[in-house]
Amino acid sequence: MLIRHWLPAFVPLAAAVLGSLFAVANGCSSVPEQPFANQPTTNGSVSLAARAADTSQQGRMHGAEAMDRQEAELGKLLALQDWDQAPTGVDQEIWESLVPEDNEMTAARVELGRKLYFDTRLSRDNTVSCATCHDVTRGFTDQRMVSEGVGEKLGRRNAPTTMNAALFTPMFLDGRSPTLEHQAGQPILNPVEMAMPNREAVVEKLSKIEDYRQAFPAAYGREVNYADIERAIATFERTLVFLDSPFDRFFAGDDDAISEDAKKGWELFNGKARCATCHPINSSNPSGTDSRFHNVGVSARKQNFEKLAKQALDALAEDASEATLDRLAVSTDLSELGRFMLTKNRPDIGAFRTLQLRNVGITGPYMHDGSMHTLWDVMDHYNKGGEDNPYLDGGIEALALSEDEINQLVELMFTLTDSRFSGQNDAKRAEQRARAAKERPFRDTELAMRKKLGFEDRVMKHK
Amino acid sequence: MVHKSIETKYMEARDNVLRSLVNCDRRTFLKVSAAAAAAAATAGVAFPHSFQPVTVTDTDENGKSNEVFRFAYISDSHLYDKQINDRFVRSLLRAVDDVNELDPQPDFVFYGGDLAQLGAASELELGAEILKNVKAPLKMMVGEHDWYLDLGQKWRELFGDDRYSWEHKGVKFVVLNSVIEDDFWTARGMSPQERMGTVAGLDNGIQSRFKVGEAQRQWLSSQLESVPNDKPLVVFSHSPLYKYYENWNFWTDDADEVQAILKRFDKVTVIHGHTHQLLTNRIGNIYFHGMLSTAWPWPYAPQGLPELTVQMNRPDPFNSQDGCGMGQVRVHDDGLVDKVYDLWNRNPVTVSREYMKSFGKTDKPKSANRSSY
Amino acid sequence: MITRNYVVASLVGLAVVVAASSFQKPQDSNKVKVRLCDGETTTEVAASETKTQAGGQAIANKLMAAWLAKHPGRWKMPAQGNKAQQDPDAIIEKRHKIMPPYDNSALLGKGQSEGDTYGNFTKRDLMIWERETKKMVVHGARVFHNAKLLGSTISVSCDMCHPDASNTHPETYPKYQTQIGKAVLLRDMINWCLEHPVRAKPMAEDDPRLRAMEAYIYAQRKGKVLQYNRH
Q: Is residue A204 included in any domain, yes or no?
């Protein structure tokens, strides 16, 4: 009986323990996003040797465009504006609710945040800034499967784009950051990202820089401090609103804004293809995400996923077993359990955030691990009903979409890219189309057309 | 009190533990975090998120578990032929997968009735073929959807008697055919298909109310004759063996008479199907638990809901498996059971014997925040 | 039956007459072009076809089909074969315990002054209102409980999840429907359910089945307080 009462109290602290154990494993920094550095990614990412050999990468740290060139590009993309007014595409009331009271947007704060976003001195070896993995020229992400940080360490998750980040909470693929501000402060301390040892070290480093000694009081009336670093970066990120796409013009009534195929795609999106429920697009929520977490089966492709889930569930059900959790954290990869590590709710096992559909054409590769390189891959995955696993969201089911219908949906998705990136969008579309013409690794027509059923292979093998 | 999101609470808890680190020596760290955990426990910190452990090991004061064994169930699959409706087939496959993944494996798996939707031989055969893949021993019970096309002919051929009993680890199990109906079809000149179609509709007033019937009540009495009052008894029935909502045949007409037969026993548990929802009742010494369907959930009836029932949340129609699933029954050495509802895409719900014994005063399952209205 | 034959015969006769009067000599002198009385719809047949009743029937059918194709909705053909499967209203009403509509008797004979026709309603008026409304509601109940009429491709009918139209909450519309991702009316949600749980084709706005089902769902919630956007 005693144990039963104990357990609910212990569980979140178990999470704390886990988080700390990740830190311990990586040398006493706090709260890394991915604890197991130097593990190779699965197929598709460029090897370190190849990167070194690639001379076009001159001046590019970790594959990112040079910071000054990024800043110049950004200058072309965004105009100054009165940030009390909602940017184009965002409902005014919604916009006001998105800006926190203790972080009103001012020109000084935007400017400070911008400096910080592009400042590689925020990393331990001065090579990584936010813009390294959220690169202005690469869809405000890095267009890689997983991201590379200090010491060429690779993470385990795909970097979401910072475009339109203002519109969501919580942040991160498992949603562990409650606010944009909080998220901004995490990668700086992550040993596989920007690798600063602790908050104090960051503050100390910035305090030595004259520009920042002036800018922080000017923006926030306070000396350099970590919370304001987070606030400033978040403020800058709020300006990165890109909701001016051909789709928006069509949505507003311009029938010529998108192709007939894309229009058919929009009908499918709201109908047979069942997209609109997790990816709603309307004037109050233009982003195309429900800001929730779903197991669509991507993590199920990892071989030990179910075993991990079982171990985690058993461990958490037993009496306060630190040792079990400790063993688990060190010897296994719990990252694939997604949102579950936060909430310990069974529906959250292997569940990751629904990401926005805005600018999806230029923010591949896709899914939380970047395992899908084209939107055709994404469609194949959903068409066959995801990957069967005991925690699959039951809303995911085979869709029986034809090749034409898939093409129409992909066509629609490419219309969601802001017109300022139309050149890159077209290039990506061509690139993806060429790749999809050669291979469709996730396609399973038997499952898609319901000739074979979900769970059939798993079950009918016995006896 | 400022409302804090679960993310904020989680991050604050993590940060607090980290700040209490004196140095990074792992052993010291573990000691510190253990102390922090203990401190939190004694402070009675309560975190309101909905985590419930999947397997709760019941222990008494000596730390001994008093669970004797457990069995699992799958129920109400309502299969059409695969070409007609793939969705219901997929759900049954998922349930079988879940049952086969249970670790440890249950002593047996019980099928709660309504395997077929329209009682067709092909539907029953399809169900039998899928259920063959259940690893643990399988026990079958009939529902009205299985019965009223051919009045049990195919069922008996595939699965044997519609009523039987056995003993297992000190518990007496009885399986009833509690979907007997008075003949409503002959006078109307109905074909077998029409009869089955009528029975298949829940809310039409044509079919008769379910009953166990006198012959079967006598059979039940004879099965229980030599059973002492203190022996734990589990009765499987498709209809609930009490009167919940007549319009939907959530009802057994001779429930009073059946309960009278069961009255002398100290520990009687009725596990029933048909209602496709989380359902709990207690009448005297008889504890009633419903089984989930794999195919679709029913809403709660507008009246007659037993007081003990803590509703499950309204299902989301986007997820055709929401409000559905399979489940387990854990039998304890006191002869009473914990009923586990393994709802898909939700945390499992346990309706424990503590809850039943106390008439709902202790160990209450979490209330729905979106109940039927 | 007999009347129909006369109608057919006269239609054929008309066609032939028109053909004769608007005779166009085709290439093949064994073929005859027959034009309908609308002056536009035509079909070409072998000359021999115009000489028999069966042939005439075939010609009439062809022309009728062609005309209907050009004028959708102008003439509602009786549903073929569905009549046998559809139970009459009285049975549906009894079986599905349709809620009685509002009792308007307070309006009987209550004109403002003696002999005033405006606002002065008779028993017959009330009966007409009730009968017509009931028919719509009853048809809704009929479709609601019938997978074939719904057009379900997986043999699912609405009453499977909503016996007696329970758990439909029509009094909460209009609302933002999370499944649809926007603000909708009840009929939009009915259509969403048709497309997904029922796996049927969504119905057009003016489809009598859709409108009847909406009517039935509202009827069963008679007396509930309106609470739009209640979730």
A: yes
- Residue type at B275 in one-letter notation: T
CA of C183: which chain A residue's CA is closest? A282
Q: Which two three-digit tokens encode residue A247?
A: 């789709």
Q: Report the SS3 class of residue B282.
A: strand
How far apart, in Å, are the Cα atoms of B165 and each of B109, B151, B176, B287, B310?
A: 15, 21, 9, 19, 31
Indicate whether A99 belongs to any domain. yes
Residues of chain B positioned with their CB less than 8 A from the CB of A15: 10, 13-14
C-alpha angle B31-B32-B38 in degrees, rounded to nearest 5:
90
Domain holding A184, by residue range, is 48-238
pLDDT, averaged across chain B: 88
Domains and CATH numbers, chain B: 6-42 (no CATH), 67-357 (3.60.21.10)
The distance of C184 to chain A (nearest Cα, Å) reads 12
Q: Which residue of B has its CA nearest to A12?
A: B10
- Those of residues 409-448 in A touching chain C at CB distance below 8 A are none
* ipTM of the complex, rounded to two decimals: 0.84
Closest alpha carbon to A148 in A125, A114, A176? A125
* Co-location of A337 and A385 in the same domain: no
Distance CA(B86)–CA(B75), nearest Å, equals 17
| Chain A residues close to B347, C-beta within 8 Å | 345-347
> Which chain B residues are closer than 8 Å to C156 by Cβ?
85
Mean pLDDT, to the nearest integer, of C3-23? 50
**For chain C, which residues make up each domain, given as ranges?**
2-70, 82-220
A43 inside domain: no
For the stretch B258-286, pLDDT in tens is 999 999 999 999 999 999 999 999 999 99
**Overall average pLDDT of the A324-335 stretch:** 55
Choose the CATH number for C82-220 among 1.10.760.10, 1.20.120.290, 3.40.50.2000, 3.40.50.1010.
Answer: 1.10.760.10
Q: Is the pLDDT of residue A111 over 80?
A: yes
Residue B52's pLDDT band (cuts 50, 70, 90): very low
A58 pLDDT higher than 70:
no
- Smallest CA–CA separation between A79 and chain B, in Å? 34
Closest partner CB to A277 (pick from C179, C183, C202): C179
User: Which amino acid is residue C153, in one-letter code?
Assistant: T
Same domain, A234 and A251: no
Question: What residue of B is the nearest CA neighbor of C165?
Answer: B203
φ, ψ of residue C122 to 5 degrees: the values are -105, 170
Q: For residue C218, name the pLDDT band (cuts at 50, 70, 90).
A: very high
B15: alpha, beta or left, given left = phi > 0 and alpha = psi -120 to 50? alpha
Which element (helix H / strand E) includes B68?
strand B67-74
Interface test with A, best of C156, C178, C201 (most A CBs within 10 A): C178
Domain stops at, among A349, A384, A412: A349
Smallest CA-to-CA distance from A265 within A279, A283, A244, A285 is with: A279
In the structure encoding, which two tokens stand for residue B191, read together? Answer: 């074909």
Lowest mean pLDDT among A412-421, B42-51, B333-342: B42-51
Residue C66, pLDDT score: 85
User: What one-character-per-residue DSSP string does chain C give?
Assistant: -HHHHHHHHHHHHHHHHHHHHT----SSTTEEEEE-TTSS-EEEEEGGGGGSHHHHHHHHHHHHHHHHHHSTTSS-PPPSSHHHHSPPHHHHHHHTTPPP----GGGBT--SSTT--TT-B-HHHHHHHHHHHHHHHHHHHHHHT-HHHHT-SS---GGGTSGGGTT--GGG-SEEETTTTEEE-HHHHHHHHHHTTS--PPPPTT-HHHHHHHHHHHHHTTTPPP-TT--
Q: Looking at beta carbons, which residues of chain A come within 8 Å of B61?
A: 1
How many CB pairs lie under 8 A apart between chains A and B? 180
